[in-house]
Amino acid sequence: MTSKQKIEKNKSFHDNDSKKSTKTLNSSNSTTRSLGKNEHLELFRKMYLIRQFENACGQNYANGNIRGFLHLYSGQEATGVGSLSSLKDSDYIVTHYRDHGHALARGIDVNRSMAELFGKKTGLSKGKGGSMHLFDASKKFMGGHAIVGGQLPLAAGLALSQQYDKKDGITICFFGDGSTNQGIYHETLNLAAVWNLPILFFLENNMYGMGSSIERVRAGGLDFFPAMNTYEIPSMEVDGMDVLAVREATEIAREKILKEKKPFFIESKTFRFVGHSYADGQKYRNQDEVIKWEQKDPIIVYPNKLIDMKITTNDEINNIKTEVDNVINDAVKFANESEEPSLNEIFTDILAE
Ligand SMILES: Cc1ncc(C[n+]2csc(CCOP(=O)(O)OP(=O)(O)O)c2C)c(N)n1
Ligand SMILES: [Mg+2]
């Protein structure tokens, strides 16, 4: 039985009829077998691409090529890749400032993403957006947003446009646990439910907002998804370190949103292996906790599972790694060698002069 069948059988997503809370959606061996080899390898390739992109960003931040704030997605790759692999070209994506992983998972150009971080003319936004504002409208990737929770109403607006124009797609909105104490989070959930918007609220619960653990700052326990009953939004919890489980949860959610014409909420339990930003010494948490989560590192666990199940071989995995390492080296070279934007760019593409 696939996880999808299991979840339907147990009615284990949390909806308003059942009022039952779900068990975490994990992928089983049968789910793993239901995907083709190429699809598996592509999921791994994308996760590894993100990890290596982030490693390169860290190095280039340390040597001064990248300036401003830098928030790395390392550790959360299974969440970004699993969810976005279930979306279609017609779907909009809106996300928070920890956005490199989502951009690459969506298939946005690696060179232009790196050049954007370097502040170069060849960047996605001519170097004027930087790390927190990756954007590519041609892929319906509507940012990268630095204001915590600020992306939620924007996503609701996009979903409203899809509903109004009778378009087939959905809008996925990623946000962190830190944004759930913002008023706009509750306002958007309420409005989306009242207006039956085709939106997937996707919480990346990485257990921390800057130096604050959710244990310390959240009333109501460690789970966010049960609270969705208040808004009559069906919800589901998923193991955010398990790329196949996240992929399947998103597939279920997307289908339900389009069929039932109402929002859905996924809480993906995940972890950032690094500090909040590059400058964070992580004094607020114990390294044992980090080590515990590193045991679930999708870059290691997922290919090992594929090798154990004889879906791929060590050599094939190593070939992908070599290919991706070259892609990243080329992206850094491209960004380094690209021109700076000219000074008069300061006055273009802005809302007010
Ligand atoms: C409105 C607002 N308040 C405060 C900040 C400062 N700030 C930046 S990131 C952050 C924590 C966000 O945590 P979370 O949403 O869990 O995302 P994560 O960093 O864990 O991915 C805060 C408070 C901000 N950018 N915007
Ligand atoms: Mg967080």
Keyword list:
globular; alpha/beta; Rossmann fold; 13 helices; two-stranded antiparallel ribbon; binds magnesium ion; binds thiamine diphosphate; 7 strands; 353 residues
Provide a short characterization of the protein structure.
The protein is 43% helix and 9% strand. It is built from 13 helices and 7 strands.
Describe the protein in words.
The protein is α/β, with parallel strands linked by helices and 353 residues long. It has a single domain (3-14, 26-337), classed as 3-Layer(aba) Sandwich (Rossmann fold). The protein has helices at 3-9, 29-34, 37-62, 77-84, 100-105, 110-117, 151-164, 183-194, 214-217, 243-260, 287-294, 298-308, 314-337; strands at 92-94, 171-176, 199-205, 208-209, 212-213, 235-239, 264-269. It has a 5-stranded parallel beta sheet, sandwiched between helices. Strands 4-5 form a two-stranded antiparallel sheet. Helix 8 links the parallel strand 2 (171-176) and strand 3. Helix 3 packs across helix 4 and helix 4 (77-84) crosses helix 10. Mean pLDDT is 93; it is low at 6-12 and 17-21. The protein binds thiamine diphosphate and magnesium ion. Thiamine diphosphate is lined by residues 98, 146-148, 176-179, 206, 208-210, 276.
